[in-house]
C-alpha cells in the first residue's frame, strides 16, 4: 500500500489526466465496454453530470502530484425508486494497481455515500475474469449479486458482467 496517497475531490485541472487514464482501459482492456475512448469534452460533461447530482468524484494523487486513480458514484438507475442506490466506478493507473489505491478510493466512496443517506451500492464489473475488481469489492464488504454471461463483445471476445452489492444504511 502506498502511504503517500492523497484522496480528494476531483477538480477541472484533473480532467486531462482522468481522460488519459480512462482511455488506457478503453483501448487495452475489457473492464469497460466502451469501444472508443471518450474525448476530454465528453469526460468533462460526464463529470459535470455526476457533480450536478451531488455524487462524489474523487481522485487519488501521489505526493508528487501524479494522478494514481479516480472513482465516483452515480445513480444506479434513473427512475426515482432507485434514488437510494448508487453505482461505483473505479479506475487505477495501470502502473499502480495492486497497491491499495482502489481500496482507499472505494472506502471513501462508501463513507460519502453513507453520509449522503444512500442505502445500497452496486458494482457492475466488466469481465468475470476481472479478479482484481471482484476482490477489491469483496474486501470492502460487497457480495456477488449476479452474473450476466456473454453480454459484452470487445476485442473479438464475449465478456460477462458481474454484479456486486453492498448495503450502506439499513435504517432508511
Tell how many strands the DSSP assignment holds: 7
Class based on secondary structure composition and strand pairing: alpha+beta
Task: Estimate the strand proportion.
Answer: 25-35%
How far apart lie the N and C ends?
34 Å
- Report the C-alpha radius of gyration, rounded: 15 Å
Task: Give the proportion of residues in helices.
Answer: 25-40%
CATH class: Alpha Beta
Q: What overall geometry do the principal axes of the alpha carbons give?
A: globular
Mind telling me the CATH superfamily name? Answer: Gcn5-related N-acetyltransferase (GNAT)
Strand order of the largest sheet: 1-2-3-4-5-7-6
- Total number of helices: 4
Largest sheet: 7 strands, mixed
CATH topology: Aminopeptidase
pLDDT below 50 for ≥5 consecutive residues: which ranges? none
Mean pLDDT across the residues is 95
Written as H for each helix and E for each strand, in order along the chain, the element string is EHHEEEHEHEE
The number of domains is 1
Amino acid at each position: 500500500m502506498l502511504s503517500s496517497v492523497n484522496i480528494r475531490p476531483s477538480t477541472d485541472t484533473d480532467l486531462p489526466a482522468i481522460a488519459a487514464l480512462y482511455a488506457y482501459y478503453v483501448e487495452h482492456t475489457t473492464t469497460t465496454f466502451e469501444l472508443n475512448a471518450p474525448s476530454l469534452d465528453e469526460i468533462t460533461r460526464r463529470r459535470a453530470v455526476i457533480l450536478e447530482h451531488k455524487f462524489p468524484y474523487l481522485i487519488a494523487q501521489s505526493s508528487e502530484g501524479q494522478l494514481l486513480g479516480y472513482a465516483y458514484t452515480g445513480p444506479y438507475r434513473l427512475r426515482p425508486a432507485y434514488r437510494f442506490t448508487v453505482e461505483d466506478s473505479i479506475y487505477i493507473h495501470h502502473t499502480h494497481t495492486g497497491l491499495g489505491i482502489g481500496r482507499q478510493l472505494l472506502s471513501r466512496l462508501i463513507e460519502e455515500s453513507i453520509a449522503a443517506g444512500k442505502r445500497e451500492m452496486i458494482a457492475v464489473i466488466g469481465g468475470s475474469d476481472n479478479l482484481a475488481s471482484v476482490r477489491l469489492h469483496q474486501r470492502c464488504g460487497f457480495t456477488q449479486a449476479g452474473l450476466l454471461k456473454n453480454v459484452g463483445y470487445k476485442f473479438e471476445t464475449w465478456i460477462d458482467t458481474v454484479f456486486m452489492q453492498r448495503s450502506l444504511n439499513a435504517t432508511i
